[in-house]
Amino acid sequence: MGVLSWRCLSSLPLSPAPGFNLNGSAIAKSPRVKLGLAALILFSQGACVSAPATTSRMIYRTPGTVSAQWSRIQDECNYEAEKATASASLKTPTEYRRFRLFNMCAKLNGATFVGKVTMPDAEWERISMQCKAEARTAVAKQAASQSRDELQEDLEIDCAKRNGAVFRQDYYP
């Protein structure tokens, strides 16, 4: 039997129920109560199964931009967004504004916001690798150009959509 997560333990009652003694052993007097308690514990174990790691990703089209350039653009836009929202009070919902500022900065640097994808990490990695390979193969015979890069990114996104990735157009986390 696995260890209960703190969320599951915090849902257990703190005060003793009728039929239990207070010496810490929590022994029920009735067999029906014991059976019910056992069922409750088994049910809570099933409810506390951890889900696979899931991440939300902001996806952009960045034709003609190499990885190092896009990394620099991301750093610059994150810095600008943080700088603009740093003085906001704790009561202000800044995450939405920060995403909007980041996206405006990325757009000024030539990136186009495609959407936000939320799915388990392992599934995204599988889809991403498959679609990159498929798109690379499809444009392999074309000469290197910006239109080839744009086509490759479009093919990757279309492939991801075909394989179950849903691109939401909102900025909310």
Structural topology:
Elements: H1 6-10, H2 31-47, E1 54-61, H3 67-85, H4 94-108, E2 112-120, H5 121-138, H6 146-162
Antiparallel strand pairs: 1-2
Helix pairs in contact: 3-4, 5-6
Task: Summarize the model shown.
This protein is mainly alpha-helical and 173 residues long. The chain has helices spanning 6-10, 31-47, 67-85, 94-108, 121-138, 146-162, and strands at residues 54-61, 112-120.
Pick out its properties.
single chain; 173 residues; mainly alpha; two-stranded antiparallel sheet; 10% strand; flat; disordered N terminus
Shape: flat
- The whole-angstrom Rg is 25 Å
Helix/strand/pairing class, anyone? mainly alpha
**Low-pLDDT windows of residues:** 1-12
Strands side by side in the biggest sheet: 1-2
Per DSSP, what share of the residues sits in E-state strands of 2 or more residues?
Answer: 5-15%
Description of the structure:
The chain is built from 6 helices and 2 strands. The protein is mainly alpha-helical and 173 residues long. It has 2 domains: 6-47, no CATH class; 54-162, no CATH class. α3 packs across α4 (94-108) and α5 (121-138) packs across α6 (146-162). The protein is flat, with a radius of gyration of 25 Å. The model is unreliable at 1-12 (pLDDT under 50).
